[in-house]
Each structure stands twice: as structure tokens, then as C-alpha cells.
Write a structure and sequence with these properties.
InterPro entries: MetI-like (IPR000515), MetI-like_sf (IPR035906). It holds the Pfam family BPD_transp_1. With 313 residues, this protein is mostly helical. 73% of the residues lie in helices and 0% in strands. The longest helix is centred in the middle third of the chain and has 29 residues.
Length: 313
């Protein structure tokens, strides 16, 4: 009996070892990714300790005094907190409601294009803006929309209307930010959805056609259900970065006339952390953002699983 038990215990261990040996090169390929995440994602998490300290660069992390939750109390009682939270949430909701569906729609439209040369040309054109830096994007927006010789405003003026201060008006700030994101990232965002659509079994379309379904019915009853899990997973991941509205774009777009509607946590952290040297306070803001993102990701994942989707974990 004892011999049988010991043999049963050794066999799984031996089979696991054999599995690892057999797939050793796959683990070697995995190693750079693991090293990257350990060095650049997990090791820097040590720095969140300064959110609970009165951090002094010359004293270091080990020598700075602990202050507990003082910086978080300062954050929620800061007069600017309501403005920052409101601006960040509004821009984040704009991205979820208006930007997130666009790559899906564009991918569905591209999938329906049958002329491959034209399809490849359109894909190339809409992918290119992703590789343009935000500095150049903001520069292009300035050339087109400034009131001092901007192309759009010159056309408006030639029609006899008053010029519109797109770049200096608080009322136009969020719309401009959203339009720039859509122009720059919508095409690139279609890649994952096009890959998901390419994985749909062609027999499903053939069966739908045999049942008399037209192109729209095939899209609604075959394509969309087939990529639903991909949409849900990407939406959950996007909610995990809900408060990350993008520092560079907003920082370059801010000015004295639109700061009340454009200042977000990312730009506020830059001003306080780097320009004023309040490292502990800015770290507390970053940790607050991370906690909110984690809660939203966990909540969205739980809701997705309750609705029968896979989720991210």
C-alpha cells in the first residue's frame, strides 16, 4: 500500500518536470516579459511608501518620518480636489462613451470591405496617427484651430461668422481633447477587434446566409456575438485605467483660460510633485488613482462574470 501511494505521488511530480523540460524554450521566451514586469512594475511599487511619509530626498525612504494618512486627508480636503475629480471623471466618461465604441465600429466597417487593396490602404491611413507624438498632434490642432490664422477659423471668417476660440475656450476644451484622441487612436484600436473578427468561423456566416440573413443580420447575429468577450475584456481593462486621462496631451493643451475644466490628477501631480517638490503628496494622489482603478476593474470584472462573460481573472 505504501509503495503504491509513494509511486502515485512521484508520478505527477515527474510528469510536471517532464512538461517543463519539454516546453523549456517557451519559458525562456517568457523570461524577458517576467523580468520587465518585475523590474519596471513591481520593484518601483516600493516607492508608494513615501505616500505615508513626510519624504525628504536627503533622508531617503528609510530616514523620512512616517505621517500615516495625513497626505490622503490633505487630498480630500484640498479645495482643488472636487475640481480635479470632476474634470478627470468627465474626460474619462467621454473616452468610455464616445471613444471606446469607435474602434469596434471601424473594425466592423473594415470587415465588410471586400476590395482588399482599398481595405489595406484605409487601414494604413488610419493607423499612421498613432505613431505621431502628442506634441505634433497639438501643433497640428493649433495650426488648424487657432484664431490667429488657423485654417478652420479662416474658413469660418470667410463665411461671415465670428471666429471660434477652440483652443482658449473652456467650453471647447473637452471636445477638442476627445477629437484629438479619436483622430490619433481610433485606427490603432481596431487591430485587436479585426483580429477577433478574423477568428470567427466562416461556417457561421455560411449558415446565416443559407437562412436568408443579409450583411447587417450577419453582423448583428454572428460577428458581434463572436467578439463580445473581447469587447468586454477590453472594457474591463479600460475601466482599470479609468482615471488615467493622459498627461502629455492635456498638459500641452492647458492654458490660463481653460485650466478650470482641464486640470486633472495627472497634471496636478506634475505641478505639485516636480515643480513644487511635494513628493509624498503627489504619490498619495497617484495611489488614490490606483485604488480607484483597482476597485473599478474588480467591480467590472465581477459584474461581467455575473452576466455570463469570462472576465479578466
Amino acid at each position: 500500500m505504501e509503495t503504491a501511494v509513494s509511486a502515485a505521488a512521484v508520478k505527477p511530480a515527474a510528469s510536471r518536470f517532464g512538461y517543463y523540460v519539454k516546453n523549456r524554450w517557451l519559458y525562456v521566451l517568457l523570461l524577458p516579459g517576467i523580468v520587465y514586469f518585475v523590474l519596471f512594475k513591481y520593484v518601483p511599487m516600493w516607492g508608494i511608501l513615501i505616500a505615508f511619509m513626510d519624504y525628504q530626498p536627503f533622508l531617503g525612504v528609510t530616514g523620512s518620518p512616517w505621517v500615516g494618512l495625513e497626505h490622503f486627508e490633505m487630498l480630500v480636503t484640498d479645495p482643488a480636489f472636487t475640481m480635479l475629480l470632476g474634470n478627470t471623471f468627465i474626460l474619462a466618461i467621454y473616452n468610455i462613451v464616445f471613444y471606446f465604441p469607435l474602434p469596434i465600429i471601424v473594425a466592423l466597417l473594415l470587415h465588410e470591405v471586400r476590395h482588399m487593396l482599398y481595405k489595406r490602404l484605409v487601414q494604413t491611413v488610419i493607423y499612421v496617427p498613432h505613431f505621431v507624438s502628442w506634441v505634433i498632434v497639438i501643433g497640428i490642432a493649433y495650426i488648424f484651430f487657432t484664431t490667429e490664422g488657423g485654417l478652420v477659423n479662416e474658413i469660418i471668417a470667410s463665411l461671415g461668422w465670428d471666429k471660434i476660440p477652440f483652443l482658449t475656450s473652456s467650453g471647447w476644451f473637452r471636445s477638442m481633447i476627445l477629437a484629438e484622441i479619436i483622430w490619433k487612436e481610433s485606427g490603432w484600436g481596431t487591430i485587436i477587434f479585426l483580429a477577433a473578427i478574423a477568428g470567427v468561423d466562416p461556417q457561421l456566416y455560411e449558415a446565416a446566409r443559407m437562412d436568408g440573413a443579409g450583411r447587417f443580420r450577419q453582423l448583428w447575429h454572428v460577428t458581434l456575438p463572436a467578439i463580445r468577450s473581447t469587447i468586454v475584456i477590453l472594457l474591463i481593462l479600460r475601466l482599470g485605467n479609468f482615471l488615467d486621462t493622459g498627461f502629455e496631451q492635456i498638459f500641452l493643451s492647458l492654458n490660463a483660460t481653460n485650466r478650470e475644466v482641464g486640470e486633472v490628477f495627472d497634471t496636478y501631480v506634475y505641478r505639485l510633485g516636480l515643480q513644487e517638490g511635494r513628493y509624498s503628496y503627489s504619490t498619495a494622489i497617484g495611489l488614490f488613482k490606483s485604488v480607484v482603478g483597482f476597485v473599478m476593474l474588480a467591480g467590472a470584472n465581477y459584474l461581467a462574470k455575473r452576466l455570463g462573460e469570462e472576465g479578466v481573472y
